[in-house]
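Rather than argue in generalities, we reproduce a single protein record, letters for residues, whole numbers for local backbone shapes, just as it appears below:
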Amino acid sequence: MPEHTVLFVDDDPNLLRSMVRTLRQQPYRLFTAHDGREAVAVFKAHPVDVVVADESMPGLSGSDLLAWVAEHYPDVMRIVLTGYPTTALAIRAVNEGRVFHFFTKPCNAVELAVTIRRALEERDRIRKRTAAPTAQGPPREPSAGWYDFTDPYRPL
């Protein structure tokens, strides 16, 4: 059984079927949802590593869904698809949804598959980084006159 899961959210059933058909050989489990409400239900029932959401859907928009995901499941990688790209939409997706990648429709299936793989690799790196104890040991007190650059957020 694949260790990763990807959720596609789009109100176009033909696009969902096409994505499932195109990506069926990829080494991850695919879930689909037709709108934001279905996507929320999938998140509550299954672990999800990457979500790919259409922007223009009835009810909950892709940006609103991805902002919800960022708030409730911040370690899930987020990708947005849109047929109507605007600068305002891109800014909102980045700022509120903290998206990993922004695609315009129609998108190249190979590019999407590569981006999903990159997102899964980034997700794995984040998991390892947050799960592994640091090798630096306990924090050191800096001597007068020098700064410890190993922790840039340490107060002076």
